[in-house]
Write a structure and sequence with these properties.
Elements (H helix, E strand, L loop, with lengths): L7 H11 L1 H8 L5 H19 L20 E3 L4 E3 L6 E9 L5 E4 L10 E9 L10 E6 L3 E4 L8 E9 L2 E12 L6 H22 L1
Parallel strand pairs: 3-9
Antiparallel strand pairs: 1-2, 4-7, 5-6, 5-8, 8-9
């Protein structure tokens, strides 16, 4: 990855202007070596100061996941800085009606390696990110997990854990909860049927 992504040419210009003249003098042995030691340190400080003023183009996508492709070179420390996001994404809540379907996509805004493995896990009835509460449901490469018809046993937290090699790179969470203020379609039909039966019975009794 290039230094200070997007500003390679500008960095080279700064390097040539600050460091190169001293290196050329050193090669010609115009002064004692001790003179260059101090001048090189000063030149290095000047280079860092100038380079640190350049804008950085970050490839990091918040709020979560290990994103190696988003790392950029830090001109102050001369090292690559990772995005430094946590592996665990915030829990997304999904409210569904009983007997309706739900689809959960394990999708992220950053590029993933080609060798990923996707492990879906489930923690029944609770909203959590505690690893020891989850039990594995599926493992493979499918980033879609769907439930054709939900019921009470499907309520809880679903975790999508994406691995590359033996390393977890991002974990997404979906908390599925039922709509307590709504009845399922079958319940509504049964309620309406009972009401109609009562009305018929009342009419018969009155006639």
């Amino acid at each position: 990855m290039p230094l200070c992504k997007g500003f390679d040419i500008k960095l080279k210009e700064i390097l040539d202007a600050v460091i190169l003249p001293i290196v050329e003098e050193f090669d010609k042995k115009l002064h004692m070596d001790t003179v260059y030691e101090s001048r090189l340190q000063t030149a290095a400080d000047n280079f860092i100061a100038a380079a640190s003023k350049l804008p950085r183009v970050s490839g990091c996508f918040p709020p979560c996941g290990f994103q190696s492709a988003g790392a950029v070179y830090n001109c102050d420390t001369c090292q690559y800085d990772s995005c430094e996001f946590p592996l665990d994404c915030p829990v997304e809540e999904i409210e569904v009606m009983e007997n309706s379907g739900v689809r959960m996509w394990c999708d992220v805004p950053f590029d993933l390696p080609s060798d990923i493995e996707v492990i879906w896990k489930f923690a029944e009835e609770v909203k959590t990110q505690e690893m020891d509460q989850f039990k594995q449901v599926t493992a493979g490469v499918d980033r879609l997990y769907s439930i054709p018809s939900t019921s009470l046993q499907h309520q809880g937290t679903y975790q999508c854990d994406i691995y590359s090699g033996s390393r977890s790179i991002v974990r997404l969470y979906y908390f599925i909860t039922g709509n307590k203020n709504s009845h399922s379609l079958s319940d509504k039909i049964q309620t309406e049927a009972c009401y109609i039966k009562r009305c018929i019975c009342d009419c018969l009794k009155g006639s």
